[in-house]
Design goal:
Elements (H helix, E strand, L loop, with lengths): L1 H9 L7 H32 L6 E7 L10 H6 L5 E5 L7 H6 L2 H8 L3 E5 L15 H18 L3 E5 L18 H14 L3 E2 L1 H12 L1 H5 L4 E3 L13 E3 L6 H18 L12
Parallel strand pairs: 1-2, 1-3, 3-4, 4-5
Antiparallel strand pairs: 6-7
Helix pairs in contact: 6-7
């Protein structure tokens, strides 16, 4: 624009007197500057209205309850925008132990995200020695290992306690067997000043608030594993009280996104909740 103005001002018109020529050139110059100012203000306003932010890369690491097709992963991604690039690297059947052992955690570190959300616990309850952990010893060890290696790689970790199973008691309350693992995650987060999303407590609160019937609409079905000689019970399905269907994934993905905005204020601008 500056070169253009100089060119216009430097041109002469043989048809005009010198005073008139100078006047017209100055008028043209000020008109162009005014147009430039309007354009700059408009473009700045447009960028602000669109909510542009620096790009941020986020990875989800966890078990099946974090995945796209059986957990809250897809619902969470749907609530992130404004330059947030979210990749779900959670894998079904994994525990805090096996996810590291098989090399999946190394893949997360190699991807070099800005942030990583880490949720394990469900498969840490397994008796299988390749997956099972003890809350106060091996589980604590592995969860600290996630933090140590993430921080060393320049990645900001965010801990997430496991979403609770729908383990209803006769009192219509949830009696979660995951509490010992959730308590360890909360303790580590507090002692190491790591951002925490207490999804375990939040999910129990919402299960009990919404009630059994509503939670059944968010639960997938699975074939019954109970043997039966009754032909009427052949192929009978039952509700899966651990995983989420599409409706449940969308609902709890939004919950995680909302809790993330509170736990990590720097990421709040990237949370886009559609009303």
């Amino acid at each position: 624009m500056g070169n253009l103005l100089q060119k216009l001002i430097g041109q002469s018109s043989p048809q005009l007197g010198s005073n008139e020529e100078v006047y017209l050139k100055r008028k043209l110059c000020w008109s162009l500057l005014a147009m430039l100012a309007v354009f700059v203000c408009w473009s700045g306003s447009l960028a602000q209205d669109q909510g542009t932010h620096p790009k941020v890369k986020i990875i989800l690491a966890g078990d099946s309850t974090v995945t796209l097709n059986a957990g809250w992963g897809a619902g969470f991604i749907a609530c992130m925008g404004n330059g947030a690039d979210v990749t779900d690297m959670a894998k079904g059947g994994r525990s805090s132990k096996s996810y590291i052992a098989e090399g999946s955690w190394k893949e997360v570190l190699d991807a070099k995200p800005d942030y990583v959300l880490i949720q394990f616990g469900h498969n840490d309850q397994k008796s299988d020695p390749s997956r099972g952990t003890d809350p106060q010893t091996t589980y604590r060890q592995y969860m600290n290992q996630y933090l140590d290696t993430a921080i060393a790689a320049g990645i900001k970790p965010i801990l997430v306690t496991s979403i609770s199973r729908r383990q209803w008691g006769k009192d219509d309350k949830i009696h979660s067997t995951l509490q010992p693992w959730a308590d360890v995650v909360k303790d580590i987060a507090e002692k190491r000043h790591i951002p925490l999303i207490d999804l375990h407590a939040k999910s129990i609160e919402l299960y009990e608030k919404l009630g059994r019937k509503e939670m059944e609409t968010m639960s997938p079905t699975k074939p019954s594993t109970q043997p039966s000689d009754d032909p009427a019970e052949k192929g009978v399905t039952k509700l899966d009280g651990t995983h989420l269907n599409a409706k449940g994934g969308a609902y709890f993905g939004r919950v995680v996104a909302e809790e993330l905005a509170k736990a990590v204020p720097d990421l709040a601008p990237y949370v886009v909740i559609k009303k």
